[in-house]
Fold this protein.
Amino acid sequence: MRKLESVRFSSNGYALKGYLHLPTDNSNHPPIVVGSHGLFSTGNSPKQTSLAKHCSTLGIAFFRFDHRGCGESDGSFTRVTSLETRSQDLISAVRKIITLTGSEGSIGLFGSSMGGAVCLNAAHRLPVAAIVSYAAPVRLQGTVGVDDLPAELRQSDPQANSFSLQFDISERIKHIRNILLVHGDADPVVPVSDAMEIHRQAGSPKRLILQRDGDHPMSRRSHQIEFVKAATSWFKDRLLP
């Protein structure tokens, strides 16, 4: 039976919450994958919960958490969300889980959409052995009206009128390696050219999977199955002895 532990930790003074999926074999000091969710998502996203299930079966722990301003973590979304604050959250999460499990040396990162950009931005500050990224944007500059935000995020700051976000991680890519990239070739939110740019600039080993007619949320069941199989294989080959 898989074990699931609730974990609370701090990032720059914000109380964050996540869930640690431990391997079925009760091994000591297992390798770990830490996930970073998309901009408007949480650690409960289907991609992370599915990956956590499959990784724990293989003997790899998986930690999924809510970034500040999202889900069960503290903070007002419109005031605390940026590429750097989310990168700090990811770094704090990795350090917390290393302390809990004693698993320094075999760390993987998974990021979905903005979470992929967060992983690429933070990787040089962490002992990362493998990265899996889905639909990661290389750069972003935009403003969203608060009325267009999901209801739970809109309620976190009733006084806000809009939310702005901008970043460019192009200078980070050349330092990345051991990365699997997955992207839908019909993604209307993050252009597939971003995945191609990351793959072109990153160091080897690397792999790019383009999902035919794939959208941003990975709606097709066949794409979901392909993604989980490829991601778990990537982590298995690089994190397990």
In short: The two ends are 23 Å apart (CA to CA).
